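hey
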């Protein structure tokens, strides 16, 4: 007696998916992600080695279940928002990063001359270029850190490293270049800043430099304008790392965003502080996927994010792209980033 086992999975509305329907849905999602053209039954039947009529029946059942949609211009189907959600929650398989991808990111993570914040931003630039998606990092709030002191380490005649240390042990460093400024003048400036500003919340240091240091620095050092500007930019860079969006223009290369009004709406949303900080609201450290309307950006946009923590530095990493995003690849990138940042 031959026995046939049929695997069924329950969809949100209570309908059941068979093993073959799961395969059909998975194939349609993954084919549509690679090429945004509605998928026909012939394409699927060749892969599953069954008749086109059988596949059409399965596609109709998936459409009735709200997992596929039929477009007006083609007899093929595309995944619905619920179809993508079902794929991510039940059908997606982790995709191993290629050796080339790993090598590109390792080059950034192994660069000992970069501060962690710079490593994160440069890594996201690499990922944005590799995926053609927009990447975002939201850093920990700088008002929670007080300036403990700054130190300066000369590199050569014009270059030096400014080290910023907070009361919580967080350390950042920035390279600066000064022309025709003696080390003695630099030390006087450092002492002045440490005496006047130590104990100030990091996000208030720039303002305090302007109102308390700038009016009197000329009494102590000759090259005061160059020194003041250099240290002002160090603190501005340090405190402005809360939101870093990389590759926003990547949306322009996606066919879903060829309409100028649509792309304007997406860009305006990405510049909205309320929306950006809503990405950070979830304290869960797991990878979260927000598809279409869940993204709060646009029905054709997906946001995938995770949180990270390294000592006193914590924040959120997010990758933003079209709804037909390469979910399996993006999740692998975020897992790699999170693991390496925390290590």
């Amino acid at each position: 007696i031959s026995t046939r086992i049929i695997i069924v999975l329950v969809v949100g509305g209570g309908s059941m998916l068979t093993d073959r329907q799961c395969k059909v849905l998975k194939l349609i999602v993954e084919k549509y992600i690679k090429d945004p053209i509605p998928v026909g039954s012939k394409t699927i039947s060749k892969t599953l080695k069954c008749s086109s009529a059988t596949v059409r029946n399965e596609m109709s059942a998936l459409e009735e279940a709200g997992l596929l949609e039929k477009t007006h211009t083609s007899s093929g189907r595309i995944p619905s928002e619920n179809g993508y959600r079902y794929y991510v929650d039940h059908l997606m398989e982790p995709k191993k990063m290629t050796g080339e991808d790993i090598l590109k990111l390792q080059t950034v993570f192994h660069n000992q001359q970069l501060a962690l914040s710079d490593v994160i931003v440069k890594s996201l630039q690499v990922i944005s270029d590799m995926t053609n998606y927009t990447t975002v990092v939201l850093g920990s709030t700088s008002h929670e850190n007080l300036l403990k002191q700054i130190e300066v380490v000369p590199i050569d005649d014009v270059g030096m490293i400014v080290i910023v240390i907070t009361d919580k042990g967080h350390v950042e460093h920035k390279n600066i270049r000064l022309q025709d400024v003696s080390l003695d003048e630099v030390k006087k400036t450092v002492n002045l800043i440490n005496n006047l500003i130590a104990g100030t919340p990091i996000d208030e240091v720039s303002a305090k430099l302007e109102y308390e240091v700038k009016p009197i620095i000329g009494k102590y050092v000759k090259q005061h304008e160059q020194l003041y500007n250099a240290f002002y930019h160090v603190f501005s860079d340090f405190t402005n790392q809360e939101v870093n969006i990389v590759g926003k223009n990547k949306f322009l290369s996606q066919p879903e965003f060829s309409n100028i009004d649509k792309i304007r709406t997406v860009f305006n949303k990405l510049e909205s502080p309320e929306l950006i900080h809503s990405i950070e609201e979830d304290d869960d450290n797991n990878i979260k996927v927000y598809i279409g309307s869940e993204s709060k950006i646009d029905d054709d946009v997906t946001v995938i994010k995770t949180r990270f923590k390294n000592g006193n530095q914590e924040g959120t990493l997010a990758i933003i792209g079209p709804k037909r995003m390469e979910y399996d690849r993006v999740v692998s990138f975020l897992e790699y980033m999170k693991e390496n940042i925390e290590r």
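The first strand starts at residue 8 and ends at 10. The chain has a mean pLDDT of 86.
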